[in-house]
Amino acid sequence: MQTLVIYDIVDDRLRTKISETCKDYGLQRIQYSAFFGYLNRNRREELQQRLKRLLGRKEGNIQIYPLCDKDMALRVEIQYKPPPVRE
Question: Which pTM value belongs to this model?
Answer without folding.
Answer: 0.88
